[in-house]
């Protein structure tokens, strides 16, 4: 006959006993063990109404008589991390069959800092204060109420703080003497904290012992200093107060209260304390940069980097700025530029390599702000002072991008080719083809576009359109290469004073000067549309749009002229996707206005449904920002990509 092992009996017993140990107004439900959680508890009030307070329980039972076993369990660090990540709080409940008692502790109260180096598990200890009794039940309810208040955004300044001590002496000062000394510093920080006891609202807990200062909210957010014993006895009270305030700022940052966190940092003398405790700054900074203290944060980081060998902090700041991309705010842009220039000044005479890297960062900033001449200048300085850039494909790719936007297409193509020779990345191929096209090397451009499209499972609609139109252009005009005469073509494209019979002749002469003259193609499209050559007009407007990606009117006209049975459906679809990718909803707004005036509201509704389905596959997303650091091979590697640059 099958026997039921003792541990399974204990597990069932602990579930039954836990249901009896909690108040009757609480409801305990078993959970699927696959989740690593044994049960769920929902709290009801005395009127048998649901409070919305819920927590999960992990039961750990033992039949041992040994106190060390009863009051301790081993949990894997991965399990602890898992519990801390869950939306619902997890209560670890240790049941002793011998004592018929539960010892409970929230998973958030377990500090992995105390795990042994290299260990995969850690010992979680319980004490008599953890026994599940009436007082602990009240504490659990209060914990859940505070947790809900914290997550709902109810924290305000000043913050109520409860202070406790865990040692008989702190730097040679007894707690009974230290407490009034700390209290005497409160007026200086009255806008930040308020010492309280009891159950008054949300409480931040501060615990000090001979080596540790621990500050946090319910152990779900906070900061722990493990160096109290190294603090100066003569300034201990004021230094502790400052560290408590900075720790509260850290906790608020972790909870998403960025503005409150920043208000604390930039109050009184705390920013100077943060310069000393700059290990906190790298954690606080991404949050601080989201607030109105943007400029002050960058200035603080620069001050720290000026006085400390802290290139890592500088790198983290650069990363945060990449993600913010606040290009619409002039004040922030000025602050970022000042920060990047200050980095350059810092390294000019002391570290040529970092001087070059700082120019590279400024180059990319100028590039994102469309200050392209300054961008190119900084790229070239970066390469001169940091020779490793000579062997970085991405460097040539980014330089090529700036040169393309400046209209220096020959050099842009040259550097895109260099980038591919170094890295072999096919992603540069269409950009190289684009630069070749605008350099007037139409046949070579077509060949590169076709190579890219043949090897790509889903090439961009813009590249496909350019390939198709280039092929038609070369065949129709028998032109493979052209020294583009941009000014002459523009002059010939102004046909306002030219008679209707001579318009096409003038515009064809303009194209003989420059096959990528957008104005010539646009006016030719208008002319051909007026004489009923709709297919020819569609081609002309498409060429204009491809030469001038920002020209919404050209895209709309090309789309409208392609909305028929003459132009292949494939071209119509490519036009919509390319136009939407280049101009987004502004293109759709103009297109729908035209269709509504031509087709009516009901027909527009049907057409719009088709178009929305077509563009649903267009993933118009920004490229991920790149932060590169030297790898073991001496190459700058993008830390967000597994691909080496």
From TrEMBL:
InterPro entries in UniProt: DUF4365, TPR-like_helical_dom_sf, TPR_rpt
Name of the protein this chain belongs to: DUF4365 domain-containing protein
Domain DUF4365: 13-135
